[in-house]
Amino acid sequence: MSRSRRAGRLVPGASALDAVAPDDFEDDPRALSPNSEEYLTWLAVEHGRARNTIVSYRRDLLAYESFLASHGHEIGSADMGLVEEHLAQLRDDGLAPASVARALAAIRGLHRFCVDEERAQSDPTSDVSQPRLQLRLPKAIDEEEVGRLLDAAEGSDAFSLRDKAILEVLYGTGMRVSELAGLSLSDLGSDTGLVRVLGKGSKERLVPLGRCARAALDDWLGPRGRPQLEPRRWARRGDAEAVFLNGRGGRLTRQGIWGVLKKRAALVGLSARVHPHVLRHSCATHMLAHGADIRVVQELLGHVSVATTQLYTRVSPEHLRKVYESAHPRARPRVTQ
Predict the structure, then answer these.
(1) Helix/strand/coil for 204
(2) Is 280 designated active site?
(3) Is residue 200 flagged as an active site residue?
(4) Given 51, 148, 196, 200, which residue is catalytic?
C-alpha cells in the first residue's frame, strides 16, 4: 500500500497546512504542487516531523518549484543538472551550507516520495552529492558569564520575573527554545520536580527542574508574575495554558524568547556571545565538565544519538593550546634571566 493512501486513511483530506499552525504560512501564501503538499503531509502525519521542520521544508520546496518553473520545468521533468544548478544558486545567494544541505534533503525526500508512489520513474537526486558540512563545536559561555546573564533579569515586575524564569529554565534544563515556547501549565509536575517536554518529532521526555529554576518559575507563576499579563479574554485557544506569555497575553513565541535573551545579554555586555541555544549548549557543556554521565545528558537534551551529545565533550582549539602550553614541559616559553 502506498504511503499517501495510508496517510489519507489516518487523516482524510489532510494537507501539510493542517499539520502545522496556520500562522506559520501567513507571510508566504504561495501554493505548492499536489505532490509536494502530499509529501509534507506524509512527513507530518506518518513520521511525526516537527512543525519547524515542515515549515522549513515547505519554504525549501517553494524555492525549488519556483526555480524549476523559471526554467520551464516541473517536478516530474527535473533532472540532476537542474537540481545541482538550483543548489549552486542557493550557495550564490549566500545561503549557509547547513541550509543548502537541508534544502537538498527536502528535495531528495520529495523525489524519492514520488518514485515510491509510482508518480515518477526515477529520482534525479540519487547521484547528487551531499554538501560537506564543517563540524562546528557547540558555542557555550562559561559559568561566570552564565551567572551574569541570569542576574541581568533581576527585578520584581512581571516582565523581569518572566525573563528570569525563562533564563533559569533554559539553563537548568537544557531545553530548546522551541520546547520552552511550547510549554503548557499541564506540563509542570506539581510534586515530582519534573517537566514534560515535547521535543523534535513530537517525542516526549521528562526533565528535572533544579532548585534555582523551580524558584524562578514559582515567582513567575505567582501573583506578581503571570497573572499580571493575563488578558481579560484569551485571544486564541491554548494561550490560557501557556506557561510564558507576551505583553499582549498571548503565548510567547520562539522569536519572543530570543528577544528576551538578546535584551538581557545586552545589559551585561554579552550580545556578541549569545545565540538562541547558548544556554542549552552551556548547560550540557558545564554538566559534562562537572562529571555528568554522557547518557544522562543525552536524555536530558533529547538527543536521539549519543554522537550528537559527544560534540559537547570536544575541546576548542584555543583551550587545547592553552592547556598544552601550560602542561607540556617543552611547550612553555623559555624564561630568560
Answers:
(1) strand
(2) yes
(3) yes
(4) 200
